[in-house]
């Protein structure tokens, strides 16, 4: 009797179930934003796991997020500033360097984290389906927590130097978004490449070093001749870092040319990253 | 009548073998990268080289499953069971063909996917649930039930690394068992964990199935298949070999399995045949193989014993286990006196009323309480009789008893009349 009822209930229900089609994938770019939204909780939990796990079994815990940029800032201020006398747009050296290190450290660690994210999750990938792009996205978002922590130090620095943010600060979210997108674009490329060729993880530390010197972290971009500035701006981090400096301190002019070039480069980077990542996704579970 | 839950049409999956292994050294890769930098970026590293071998893990697989059906996937290792499950769960893509699944799909290809040892049981429950496709609110709602089911109690806020393996498994199962998609794909995950908990999980899955959900279940343990599934798909070398009702297909599969690993059907051990049992067989009735029993009638079983030394005060025990190591029957003989040489122990049974499946004999011999031999007989005994049981496997017991069922009906008046008559006679 019970069985019959169940069957009747099932039969009475109209075919409202969504249909899932499984076949070999075609197409260049298929970022299913609807699906990504459906998996937002998974992104949240991946980010949350990353943060929880990152500082477990460390002695000073999240203080590392502060110590790293602060120590780098001190070293840079001493050597590039006091000794090499690199111009700092009239800013105190600690402020000059810290404003650059904020986005740079975020970018560098997000890039390194994203590189390994697919490989680290290979067991999960080979056992369960979810939009694979969740992995680099969550890796890049989890870096924002460290960013927020080190940002508090920046506020202390500003107070110490008795500086107040100007109206330019309203642009900060835009530059932060640019930094996140840059990290995402690079992260998509590197995580996909690393999944297929483990050599990539050995290359990344060098890449980070070179990129650091190709970005206006230790020096102002004004050292670059004006006519080459647009080329320099193709490094999206150039636009991001100069943008941060300007937005946080209000010194100098808004980095318009740099910014335009950087934004263009970021769009290209993210789109190409998505295409490549998508192409990798299809074979990843067979290859990792 | 009922709706289609899954339809697969010509699914095939090709793997390329050889290519990956061939470019292992860094130098080799680098030279290759220099030669063809564009192809290096190709996301399909198999495309790097020609000279690989195509291997079809799955070929031409088409089937339709209806809502509420519980289907077992069986086949030897490498038959393509896991590949099919991976395609249906979208972990990997088919090379050709297509499938449609109606409704939400949950897959359980591994237990505890994404568990992290540093996180607590609570945290892992949420993480694992999210990976399996549950939303945060859904997990909130089921959390207490999951913890109760897992029987981890106060440990829920302890990091997972302090859990015993059993506790980890239980928690993992508990999360997975509370997944409630319209279609559930389950790989051989129940092969691990202790028996009692396995039962509990099977029970929970059965519950899910009776709720009108579709389950596709891979297992090597035919008992589990029999208990859960009403329909079985038998895959062989990537193709569907047979589809049908569970008793039919599982029985055919079992017979083919026993036929395959025979060889030394009666001979035991390797080169050093020692003091003890050396073989066994069913003497009567003779089937095509001496370890297959296909009739309900009288059975005669023979165990061969070789003794290098005489036995003065022997104790001999015999036991019959089913595939889950449940004891079916046991018996013993005492004070045996046996000379050096070959002995045959004969057992005659009027019938062995066991449900179809694999069973193993265990025979032992002691002298003055000292063990001479305890042998879990090989090969296993396959009972391939006709089932006389309930149609639903969970109502099948361990016995297979033929019975005759009849109904005798009478009208109430007739009953009363009979009662009257009976009284009258007795007076």
Topology:
The complex is a heterodimer of chains A (288) and B (427).
Chain A: H1 2-12, E1 19-23, H2 33-38, H3 40-54, H4 64-83, H5 93-120, H6 122-127, H7 134-160, H8 172-196, H9 200-213, H10 229-232, H11 236-249, H12 256-287
Helix pairs in contact in A: 3-7, 4-5, 4-7, 5-7, 5-8, 5-9, 5-11, 7-8, 8-11, 8-12, 11-12
Chain B: E1 4-17, H1 19-22, H2 26-35, H3 37-40, E2 53-66, E3 70-74, H4 81-88, E4 96-102, E5 105-108, H5 121-132, H6 136-150, H7 165-177, E6 183-186, H8 195-210, E7 214-218, H9 222-228, E8 231-236, E9 239-245, H10 246-260, E10 276-284, E11 292-293, E12 299-307, E13 311-322, E14 327-338, E15 341-349, E16 357-367, E17 370-376, E18 381-383, H11 412-426
Parallel strand pairs in B: 3-7, 3-8, 5-6, 6-7, 11-18
Antiparallel strand pairs in B: 1-2, 1-4, 8-9, 10-12, 12-15, 13-14, 13-16, 16-17, 16-18
Helix pairs in contact in B: 5-6, 5-7, 6-7, 7-8
Q: What is the fourth-level CATH superfamily of the largest domain in chain B?
A: P-loop containing nucleotide triphosphate hydrolases
Q: Structural class of chain B, please?
A: alpha/beta
Which sheet architecture does the biggest sheet of chain A show? none
**Which quaternary structure do these chains form?**
heterodimer
* Overall body shape of chain B: globular
Determine the number of helices of chain B (DSSP H or I, runs of at least 4 residues): 11
Instruction: Output the CATH topology of the largest domain in chain B.
Output: Rossmann fold
Annotated CATH architecture of the largest domain in chain B: 3-Layer(aba) Sandwich
Could you tell me the number of beta strands of chain A? 1
Query: What share of residues are in beta strands of chain A?
Result: under 5%
CA-based shape of chain A: globular
Low-confidence runs of chain A (pLDDT<50, min 5 residues)? 1-15
Strand arrangement in the largest pleated sheet of chain B: 5-6-7-3-8-9
The end-to-end span of chain B amounts to 61 Å
User: What profile does the largest beta sheet of chain B have?
Assistant: 6 strands, mixed
Radius of gyration of chain B: 28 Å
Largest interface: A-B, 48 and 56 residues
Helical stretch tally of chain A: 12
